[in-house]
Amino acid sequence: MYFSKKYIKKYWKPFFSAVLFLTFETICDLMQPTIMSKIIDIGVAGKNMNYVLKMGGLMLLITALGAVAAVSRNIISSNVSLKFGTELRRDIYIKINTYSFENIDKFETASLVTRLTNDVTQVQNFINGLMRIFVKAPLLCIGSLVMATRLNPSLAIVLAVVVPIIGVFIFANMKIGYPFFKKVQKAMDAVNGGLREYLSGARVVKAFNRFDYEQSRFDKTNVEMGNTQINAMRVMAIFAPGITLTVNIGIVVVLWLGGFNVNNGNMQVGQVIAFTNYMTQILFSLMMISFVFTMFVRAKSSAERINEVLIQENSMKVLSASLAPSNETGSLEFQNVYFSYAGTSGEPVIKNITFSCARGETIGIIGSTGSGKSSLINLLPRFYDVTSGTVKVSGIDVKYMDPKKLREKIAMVPQKTTLFTGTVMENIKWGKEDATPLEVQEAAVIAMANDFISSSPEGYDTKIGQGGVNFSGGQKQRVSIARALIRKPEILILDDCTSSVDVATETKIRLGLKEYLKDLTCVIIAQRITSIMETDKIIVLDNGEMVGIGTHEHLMLNCDVYQDIFRSQLGKQT
Asked: What are the DSSP calls for 367-410, one per residue?
């Protein structure tokens, strides 16, 4: 596995320490039946109480040493497995954060959540089991076979028959069970996806009284997962009883042959008891081995899913080139840009877009729903790469810029407002981590957010619920605008971010931005034509194509699409 080398290098010492204690514990367990047989055959049969007490004391000592080894092994194994799981989850989380939007689109969000939680837990449990019972099982099995054979070679013939049969059971268990557990993890993805979708849209579900429909959808995926798990466990359930039956038949045969040999004087009672104990240990170890392989097939499926996340390379490569300092700070330029989302067919979403915007200019982008406005602007901070053409920021092709440095130049207020759990102050300071309270307030004033924040009892320390549930849509948008403004970027992108704000408040925000945007390049995407009428330049999009560019006055004379939008919104033409 991709991720195994790192963790083997880091944890092999404590891992083998745990295995060492486990081996000592197993040796202690293997010594018990042989000592017991001697107590019976020598001490009890010879009525030698001193021998019984001496060997009984030895058994107690060995048991105590085994218990100390078991406690040490438990402490080390728990420590290693929990640290491993914590670090693996962190590495997956960091890896996901390096993904481009194209990479993230390849995985469903629910699937990434399952891989980050349930799949890591499965692998973590397997690692913990390796240091607890998984290594002990084969050691105990082999040790019991050796000790039983030494005790009575003739009875060992029973073992020669029983063990291969059980080996077949275990192999079939692994071979047949693996595909089922892979289906279980996929079914869990579907359940998590349905649950996440419902929770994110709970208000809509209640508003339209569609709970019964959503419940039926969830029930369907939930029942499918239950049935998949039942099928997996049904297959697994065949093997454990088969192994138990085989070993118990072997024990019956041992007791029968042992009794026959005792009657003939060829074997002592203590040896029969010891041999039976070893057979019981073999049964226990083989059951553990069966459980090991059941855990292994589940962990293997989970490890492969984790590996898919970790080996996924960022599709967005930074081209190497010596970049000369640019004098065009804050400018942006699109040259013959085409764009299609990965895995889609048909016409490109963006077709042959060419325009430029100098530092300090404000440019508006308008068009009908689905015309490609947000897709176009997502190319600027390089959330996606163009299919062909060039996007330049400050005179440099964004493909030659480190995405982190590129995005430091840009602040964006997205169409879908996202606030994080915490205070208003913390949310605004997302834009500038070291911002002073005064800077936060100044940004909030421009965004027309200061009044409603200050009027609340806790002011800027007001707690924001998950996703901003305790704020209105307009309030969330204004906090998001403040978060972008406090960054003081070279380029500000406002993606339809005042759609939930009333016209009067939007006008005040625009007036505040005029003073703030003196040396700032600003791109405003809007549905309302009044939001962009006074910008230096307006781009009109229709079906991914640029059908008009110029000032409001110019477009009112020369662009039919812009005229239609104007008439549909304002009902008149100037």
From this structure: ESTTSSHHHHHTTTTTSS--SEEEEEETTEEGGGS-HHHHHHSE
